[in-house]
Every structure is written in structure tokens, then in C-alpha cells.
């Protein structure tokens, strides 16, 4: 499929890099769509950047459609690390006559990229674009896990028209449904209806309060390792670090914390798409938020090129197997530890007739703390959540 028909070329300034830094900055290394009829060749490309200037469904944040080019300007000025990036910038998706037309175009493009094992990095625009990203997996027939870095759940009401604060309900209710698990990292209780939190529990979704996450950030690594797609709302970052958002608030992640989260995402073998949403240049002091998002994308790229390729499906002989018996529990808990990276997984039982459907989901990423919990004769929460869905 020729996806170039969905894009318009970029109009970026000339970057005046010093000669001594030539071919060291990303602006020199990314294959960008900057001239008509020069759409990047995607052969041997690992990651693509695509902007979506869509904010017609933005809630309290009109103007976020202008973010993609601001973010690019900062991303292109960054130095590459110890990686040789194979990245293309496809330009900006042409805005449809209606938001639904933009969703269709984004869904089509993302599906084609994932099919070709290329990771799309989506720069929005408003977070309702997450719905279009999710629909791309539907066309692939793939059951997926979504991880959202957000201060709220964006559930809204089932009967209301979809917007950036209600897209999750549309995903949950959409048929056929390809959502296996939803994980929220960093919600803030005073922004969330207690009934919404109860609903998340009833659906066996994983939701983690900001304070709990910030108290032990490394425990989020298995959450990211279990994701297929990640959606990031910059309102999850405190206003002092990311003022460029109409819904910014005093509390949230620090900039360096959210960059660490995104590096975990880049390291994940499963993640095949990620989106950064709700940056609004209209509110941004000195373009601080655009600069931070550019750095977040840099950390994702660095994580990607540091991947260990150690998912247990690849070669079970490179793992140490641990079996733990739990008192009064019929199933023994099986853990695998990678000899390469020391990362852990749990093998959660699944009904025989569901094995094909959930082939990618019964090996659940976990941490050494989960193994310790089992050794102390208790069932880890991660294991129990997955078990409820698989059985």
C-alpha cells in the first residue's frame, strides 16, 4: 500500500549545525519528507515519526494540533547516542474533512507500518487519536495491551460523543474487541471519579496512583514490557515541567521521571506503537513542553536500540525456570528469569481453548519482587490480574 497519499511534506527551518557535529545530530540522520515527491524509502527503517495536526475533539486544549512541528525542531537538534538510528519522518498526516476521516487515515497508516515491523511514533494532536491507533490492531486481528501515562482514565460517559477525555470508553465498548488489558500509570485520585476506579478494578485493569509509581519507578518497567501500544498525555507531567497544556496541573511526574518511563517503553520487545499527545504551544513557556517531548522521544529511541531481544518466546533455554508452590492454591506459580538481562516473567495458566487467542499474553512480565511475594506464600497482584482474564 502507498501510504504517502496520506501525508503532506514538512516545512522545517534550515538547521545550522556546526561542521564538527555533522552527522551526529538527528536532524542530519533522520530521513524526512521535506519535498514533494520525495517520500522516504522505508526499507530498513526501524522507527517512523508522523505528526497528526488534529485537535477538533480536544477537551480544554484547542491549539494542540500545532505541536508536531515544534517538537520536531527540538528533536532534530539532539545528538544521537550510542546508536545508529534508522528513522524516517513521514511528515504530517493530512487532516480529514471530519475527525473520523483523520482517524481512518491514521488507523490505515499505523496498521501498514506495524505489519511491516516498523514502529510508528505518533506526535499529536489530541489524545482521542489513541482510538485510531487502537483500531489499527483490529485490522491486524491482534489482541493487545494498552499502557497509558495519564493523570485520568479518559473514560467519560458511554453515551457521550467521543473526545480526548472519553476515548477509552469507546475502546472498551468497541466490537469486535481486541483489548486484553489496559494499564494506567500515574493517575491522580482527586481527578478521578471513585466509580471509575471501581470499574477499572471490576474489569481487572491495572491502575497505579502517581504517588505509588513515583515511590518505586523501576516497578513500572514490567508494565511497559507488557504493552503493545503506549499513549502519553503530557498533562500527566507537573505544570512546572510541562506548562504547554490546557489541562496542566501543579502535580504530576517530573520530566526526568517520565523520560525514564519512556525509556522502559523503548526497551520493551512487545511495544509496536507509541503516541505523545496534548502538547499545546499556545500555553508553552519558552517551548519547554515541546523540548521535553522531544527528549522523551529521544529516550524511546535510545531504549529501542538497547533492546535485549530476550522475550521467553525466543529461546526458552536462555532462561532459568523457578516453580513456587502456594499453600491452598492448586496452581504452582512458574517464573522465568532471563540469563541475558536478569528480567523476570510469570507463566500464567490459560484455558486450553484460549491458548491461540492469548498466546502473547500468558507470559506476564514481572519483577523480582513478584517472585519474592510468591516465595512468601502470597500470590502477586500481577499474576492474579492476568489469571482472572485468562481463565
Note poorly predicted spans. none
CATH third-tier fold name of the largest domain: Arginase, Chain A
The overall number of domains is: 2
What share of the residues does DSSP label as strand, in percent?
15-25%
Mean pLDDT, all residues: 92
Describe this structure in a few short sentences.
By secondary structure, this protein is of the alpha/beta class.
What does this structure look like?
The protein is an alpha/beta fold. Helix content is 30%, strand content 18%. Strands 1, 2, 3, 4, 5, 6, 7, 8, 9 and 10 form a 10-stranded mixed sheet that branches. Helix 5 links the parallel strand 6 (144-149) and strand 7 (179-187). Helix 2 (67-76) packs across helix 10 (288-304), helix 4 (129-138) packs parallel to helix 5 (167-173) and helix 9 packs parallel to helix 10 (288-304). It is globular and about 65 Å long. The model has no long low-confidence stretch (mean pLDDT 92).
Compile the SSE list and pairings.
Blueprint: E1 7-8, H1 26-29, E2 31-32, E3 47-52, H2 67-76, E4 87-93, H3 99-115, E5 119-124, H4 129-138, E6 144-149, H5 167-173, E7 179-187, H6 194-202, E8 206-209, H7 210-215, H8 221-225, E9 229-233, H9 255-267, E10 273-277, H10 288-304, E11 319-324, E12 333-338, E13 344-347, E14 363-366, H11 368-375, H12 381-390
Helix pairs in contact: 2-10, 3-4, 4-5, 9-10
